[in-house]
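Feature request, filed as a ticket because there's no other form

It would be nice if the structure record came with a short human-readable summary line next to the tokens. Right now we just get the raw output. Example of a typical job, pasted below so the devs can see what we mean:
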Amino acid sequence: MKRRTKLLLTFSAVIGLFAFFRVVPAVKAVLNAARCPVANRIIYTSRREYVPPFSFEQAEAICSDGSGAVAQRLPSQLAEASSLVVSPDGSRVAFASDGGIHIMPIEGSSPILVADGLDVAWSPDGNKLAFSKVMSVSQTTDFIFGIFVTNASCTDAPGGCIPIANFLGQGRYPNWSPDGRQIAFSADDGNIYLMNADGSGRTRLTDVDRRQQAYEPVWSPDEQAIAFSLFIDACPCPRPIQIYLADAGTGVPTYLTDGTHPVWSTDGRSIAFISDRDGHGKIISLFDTVFPVSSLYLITRDGKNITRLTEGNNDSIYAFSWMAQ
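Raw output as currently delivered:
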């Protein structure tokens, strides 16, 4: 009898902790929303460990002022997104999950499947989506990716729809220029390229060697620079993944900081990114699956000021986007 009572008390304690860590943040978000305008919010997905081995995916919006205040709890459908971006008008979010590209209102509803793929990006007018998908596997077991563009207005329900997607060529991580005329992307030779929105006129922007891989290009709002991540194999540096700014005209790169997944703020003055700096280096192990702990940061365009945005020591950030594009 005592053993059963002890087990019940332990179980109740675990449930109580779960409720505390889930309900209290939701209440705080409502209070924080009033002092955090939508334009200052960053939506992100993460895996958070509470009491081992309990770990949960979640999606929320955090203020970009460095306060760490969560301003909005977001639909659970976004929690497992590997890539996401808010539409230019802020009303919808496109995200990659379970091998497919989905669209849904930012407030939440049943997601609409519009394509098979990953690495999604909106066109500046909000009418199209660019994305990449695995086309084949080479003899060296490397994946060969292709870039496609599809209509973003598919609204057939229920179950979604698969509209016709135009193939633009091999590559990954497409990102539209603010004027909609070009798309930056990562090619299989490890460089960043530019092409016209119809796939023509491919031009190499960067010049990296075979030990490096440039990826995740993102245009600045003024179209003068392209931020990108650079993986350096066998790098003697503390962290092998760094962020650079390339001149959009000449391709000349400038080191910005250590980290990955750069995303420009709407005013072009700063860049949000993911990093395991600040002495993290911690690893979450859950049912034999390893998740590196990382946080969200903000750095000014000149690289002089860095602000840590997420404070959780048990978070692993996966994807994020500014709520106002």
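Something like this underneath would help us a lot:
The domain at 81-322 is CATH 2.120.10.30 (Neuraminidase).
Residues 211 and 236 are 13 Å apart (CA to CA).
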